[in-house]
Each structure stands twice: as C-alpha cells, then as structure tokens.
Design brief:
heterodimer; A: 137 residues; alpha+beta; Heat Shock Protein 90; 5-stranded antiparallel β-sheet; 5 strands; B: alpha/beta; Transcription Regulator spoIIAA; 6-stranded mixed β-sheet; 4 helices
Amino acid sequence: MRSQPFEFRASFIDLEEGLDVLHQSMERLRSATGRTLEDRPLMLFETALGEIGSNVLTHGRPPGTEKPVDYVLRFDAGVVEASLTDSGAPAHEHLAREMPTHDSEQGRGLAMARSLLDELGYRRDGEVNRWRLVKRL
Amino acid sequence: MALDVQTRQTEGGISVVVPTGRLDVAGAPALKDAIGELVKNGPPRVVIDMEGISFVDSTGLGSVISALKQVRGSQGDLRLAAPNQQVRVVLELTTLDRVFPYYATVEEALTGF
C-alpha cells in the first residue's frame, strides 16, 4: 500500500450530488493508496462518513440558505480525516444519542459514527457546524 | 446514484425484491415503495436480494426495518439474502442481525420459505 499524503476538496448543495461526491472521494482515496473495497478500516470510515454526510446534507442547509456544505478529505501518515462544514442549526443536543431499539426506523446515525471512528469532533463556530471524522487505518 | 428496485415472483409465489445501488437516505424511499406495492396484494413472502447493494446507511437500514414491519403486519414474512461485507457490518453494529437473520444466497433464503 502507498502512503503519500492525499487531499480532496469539494463543496455541494444537493443531497444526491453530495452523497455521490463523498463516495467518489473514497474511491479516489482507495485508488491513491492502493487499498481495495475489502479494506475494513476504510470501509468503516466510509460508513461513518455516509452517516455524518447524510445528516449534514439533510439538516445542514436550512431553507433559504445558499451556502454549500464544504468537505475536505485527507490522508497522511496512516490517518484518514474528513471535515464537513454546514450552516444548519446547532447539533449539540444530538451528539450523545444512543443506539435506539430494534424496531426504530431512525436515530442510529450518530451512534454508529461514534462507534466506527477513533474521533468524532463537533463544534459550533459562529453560524456554522464543523464536523471532524478521524480514523487510524 | 438513484436506487433501482426490480421485483420478480418465483414459481412458489415468493416475491424477490432486487435493489441495485446505494441504499441510503436518497435510495431508501424506492425500497419502501416497492414493499408497499407488495403488501397491497395480500400477505407476501419477500426475499430482499442485497447482492446489488453497494452501501447501506442508517436510513437505508430504517427502510428495511419498515419493510419488515409492513410485511409482518400483513401476516407475511421477509428474509434478507446476500448482503455484502459493509451491509453485514452495519447489521452487526446495530445488532439488527438478531432481527434479520440473513442468508448467504437468494437460493438459501428461498429454501423452506
């Protein structure tokens, strides 16, 4: 496996477009580092990225806003890190959400992401939410 | 990438639902719609062939839970077949593998159903 630094940046406004870009960025990272779809740590990271990404794309663009979601994916020295910045409402109250019961159809995303990552960072910065996802591969 | 969902009937009257693509927040409504159509026609026995699902997220998983509730609510039953590694990890992480015993292939899921 190759280990040179990798960086990908994008901004998006649409849900499906944004999800496509997130998964395409992971494909590029796999290609750049010689990893396959079966690489389990990267697969776990992509699963967490899909959860936070869909939350941000669903709740992070309140009606009337023209601000896109900003996304950066980096890989260096065996650590993959993603950051997502959105202009939605503060999300503090959702961060500690636990895994719901089996029959619940929603509410698993943040609990899943927490358990799949080495670090799930969140901070409110003025009018934006900044999410940071970190996993050592 | 929109989720494509095809449905076929076996000779034994079992509905095999075949979604292809990402079963995520964008794709989940298509699976819900397909299951909703099956339930309209009486108690269905349904196998969801997951082989074409490249990725599942928690909303996609929610649509499978919804499908199970709909099908069992109409006195039918539902089985999952051929999930890939990522889908299996998500089922195990959420302990939903206890609710959805999955089968390695569609043929196995159809056996004795």
